Amino acid sequence: MELLENLFTNIAGWTRTLLSGWSVSYSMIELVILFLGIIAILGLIVLDALILVWLERKVVGFMQERPGPNRLGPAGFFQTIADTLKLLGKEDVVPRAADRWVFRLAAPMVFIPAIMLYAVIPFGKNMVPINLEVGLFYCFSIASLGTMSFLMAGWGSNNKYSLLGGMRTVAQMISYEIPLLLSVLGVVMIVGSLNMSEIVAAQQKVWFVLIQPVAFLIYFVAATAELNRGPFDLPEGEQELVAGVYTEFSGMRWALFFLAEYTNMIATAAIAVTLFFGGWHGPWLPSWMWFFLKVYVLVFMFMLVKWTFPRIRVDHLMHFGWKFLIPLSLANLLLTGVGIQIYRVMGG
Amino acid sequence: MPRTQELHLNMGPQHPSTHGVYRCVLTLDGETVTSAENHIGYLHRGIEKIAESKTYPQFLPYTDRMDYLCPMVYNQGYVETIEIMMGVEVPVRAEYIRVIMAELSRITSHLVMVATMAIDLSSSTGWMYCLREREKILDLIEMVCGSRLTVSYMRIGGVSEDLPDEFIPGLRKFIGELPAYLDEVHELLTGNEIFQARTKGIGILPPDMAIAYGVTGPNLRASGVAYDVRRAQPYSVYDHFNFEIPVRFNGDSLDRYLLRFDEIEQSLRIIEQALDGLPEGEIKGKVPKLIKVQPGEVYHQVESSKGAVGFFVVSDGSNKPYRLHIRGPSFVNIGVFPELARGWKIQDIISILASIDPVLGEIDR
To answer: Are B203 and B341 in contact (CB under 8 A)?
Structure first.
C-alpha cells in the first residue's frame, strides 16, 4: 500500500538519485523530471481518451438498450485503437477555399490548451506537476483559449455551417465563462488562495460541495457548456449544422478535436474534484486512485447528461447564462461572504 | 465600410436532418431564418408514369415504395380504388385484416415521427426507445407477409396471406405493453424542460392557413380542424369501430408531436376492436385471373399517417391504367413549411420539419 501510494513520487526520487549519481547538474535534473512529467501526462491523456471513448460508447449502449462496441477485444475494448488506426490512415484534406494557416493551426491549437491544463492539477499527495500560486487563475485563463481555436476552425474552413458553429462557440463562451468563474470564487473566498494544493488541503475535513452546493451546480452546468458537450453542444450542432466547426476536418485533424474534447472533459472533472470533492483525500486507497475514481464518477455524470437531454437552443442558452446563472452565482458569492463573516465573528 | 449581409445556406440535399434528399435554401440573418425555399425532386422515380406501363396487380409494389414508413395504407388505398372500379366484393375478414395492418403501419409511422423529432433535437436515446418499439411491430408485420417495409401485402379483392396462428397472441401482448413504453418516452422527452422550450409555441400553423395549403392528417388536426378521412368519408370497415379523432388546438410543434401519441392510442383501440370482432371466412374475394377495369375514372381517398392519400385512376378498359395520379399528403404538407419556418431560429426549423413529418419517397414519387 505504502509502495503504491508513493509510486510516482518514488519514481521521481529514484530518477533524481540516478541522475545525480551521473553528476548531472541540478537544473538539468529538474528539466529531465519535468520532461518525464510531460510524457507521463501525455500518456495519461491518451490512455484516458482510449478508455473514455470506449466507456462513452458502452454507457450510451447501456442507456439505449444496445450492446455498443463488442467485436474487438474483451467487450470491444480495442475498438478505440482500431478507430485511431483508421483515422491515422485517412487523407488529410484541406479545402481549397480554406484559410490554410488558420485551418491547419486550429486543430493543434485546440489540443495544446487542453494539455496545458494538466500542469497544475494535484493528482495525488505531492503529485502536482507545477505547484503554481495562481493555479486556479491559470486554469481558467488557459481553458478560455480553447474558444479561440474553435473560432479559428469555424472561420478557416470557409464553410457556412462551420462559420455558424464558430460564432456559436463565441456566443456560448461569453455567456458561460462568467458564471463559471463566479461559481469558483466562493471556494477561493473560503480558502483564501488560488493554489490548487492549498484548496485540496483545506478540504481535509469537509468537502466544499457540502458548503458550496449551489456553486458546484453552477460549475457543473457551465463546465458542460464550456466543454461543448450535450445539451450545450451547439458549436457541433449535428442536427442543424451537420458537424458545425468540425464539418471540414478529416482524419487526424478531426481526431485531435475529439481527443481535445475528452482531454478537456477529464481536466474539467479534475478541477471540479479539486475544488469541490476534496481532491485526492480519501481513506484506504492510494491518493491518486481516489482522485481518478472521483474524476471518473464525474465524467460518468457528464455522459449521463449528454445522452439524456435534447440540445438547448442558442438564444435560450444565452438567456439562461445571463439571466439565471450569473445572478445566481452573484447571490451565492454574497451568501458566502456573509457566511464567512459570521463564522469569523462567532469563531474568532 | 463593413456591412452586414444575409447568408444563403443550402440545407440539403445531403444533410442529417432533412429526412432524405430534401433541399431547403435558407436565407439567414445571423441564426434567424428570414426565408426558406423548398426544393424537391431528388428522389423522383416517375411512379405515376410507370403505372401506365404496368398491369393493375403489377403496380402494387410501387405503392409500398412511396411512403415506406406507412406502406399498408398505400396498399389499401390503391387496391380499394381498383376494387371500386371493378365492383369487387371484399370478404369481411380481409377488410378486418386490412384495418389491423393499416393501423399497425400507422403506429410504426408515428413512432418514427416521434423518434426523428427526438433525434432532431439531439436526443438519440429517445430515438432508440421509439425504434425499439417499432421493431416489434415490424416483426409482427414480417410474420404475416414476410417483409418489413416493402410489404406488398394487399391484393385486389383481399389480402395475400391469412394471419398466422402466432400473430394474434403476439399482437395482443404488444398492445398490452406499448402504453407503458410510450410513458417511458413521455418521461424522457415530453416532460423535459429543454424539449418543451424547443417545441412549445414554435412553428405555429393557424387553421385557416392549414386549410388554404391543403394540409391534412395530424398536422391539420393539431391546428384544431377535426378532419380525418376515416370519419369524414368512411372506407373499408372503419364505420364498425368506435374511435375518436384526436384534436389539439395550438398548432405548434409540440401539439403536432403530442397528437401522434393521441393517434397511437386510438389506433390501439381500433386494433383491439378489430381483433375482438375478427370474423372467420375467406381472405380474398372472387376476382378474375386477368384483371381488367371497365372504362371510367375514380378518385378514392384513405387516411395515412401523414394525411389524406388519394388515388385517381383513369381506365380505358385495358389491363393497365390509362392514367394514375396520386395525391400524396407529404407532398402537400411540405408546401406549408416555408411559411412555418420564417422568422424562427435555424435550430427551430429542424424541429418544425420533424414535426411536419414528411417522407421524401412520397414527396418525389
So the answer is: yes
pLDDT value at residue A28: 78
Phi, psi dihedrals of residue B300, rounded to the nearest 5°: -135, 135
Taking an 8 Å cut-off on Cβ atoms, the answer to whether A310 and B9 are in contact is no
Burial B217-253 (b: 16+ CB within 10 A, else e): bbbbbbbbbebbbbeeeebbbbeebebeebbbebbbb
Tens digit of each residue's pLDDT (9 = 90 or more) over B197-217: 888 888 888 999 999 998 998
Q: Is the pLDDT of residue B28 over 70?
A: yes
According to DSSP, residue B190 is labeled I
What are the start-end ranges of the H helices in chain B? 47-51, 56-64, 71-86, 92-120, 124-145, 167-185, 193-199, 207-212, 218-221, 229-232, 253-276, 329-334, 337-341, 346-356, 360-364
CA A172 to chain B, closest CA, distance in angstroms equals 14
Q: Answer for the pair A258, A44: CB distance below 8 angstroms, yes or no.
A: no
- Nearest-Cα residue of chain B relative to residue A304: B125
C-alpha grid cell, residue A285: 486507497
Cβ–Cβ of A310/B125 closer than 8 Å?
Answer: no
Cα–Cα distance for residue pair B255/A138, rounded to 1 Å: 49
Domains annotated for chain B, with CATH where assigned, are: 47-362 (1.10.645.10)
Cβ distance A239 to B129 less than 8 Å, yes or no, reads no
Q: Do A238 and B120 touch (CB under 8 A)?
A: no
Percent of chain B with pLDDT over 70: 100
From A282, A264, A308, A322, select the one nearest A121 (Cα to Cα).
A264
> Omega into A179 within 30° of 0, i.e. cis?
no
CB contact at 8 A, B282 and B92: no
Sequence-distant (6+) residues with CB within 8 A of A221 are A179, A325
Whether chain B has a CB inside 8 Å of the CB on A315: the answer is yes
**B165-192 burial: b if 16+ Cβ within 10 Å, else e:** eebeeebeebbeebeebbeebeebbbeb
As a whole number, the mean pLDDT across chain A is 83
How many angstroms away from the CA of B259 is the closest CA of chain A?
20
Torsion of CA B229, B233, B236, B240, to 10 degrees: 100
Is any Cβ of chain B less than 8 angstroms from the Cβ of A240? Answer: yes
Alpha-carbon distance values, A48 to A13, A51, A89, A302, B17 (Å): 25, 5, 22, 15, 32
Pairing relation of β-strands B23-29 and B32-39? antiparallel
Q: What is d(CA B36, CA B232) in angstroms, rounded to the nearest whole number?
A: 33
Is the omega angle on the peptide bond into residue B169 within 30 degrees of 0, that is, cis? Answer: no
B228-274, pLDDT tens digit by residue?
Answer: 888 888 888 888 888 888 999 888 889 999 999 999 999 999 999 98
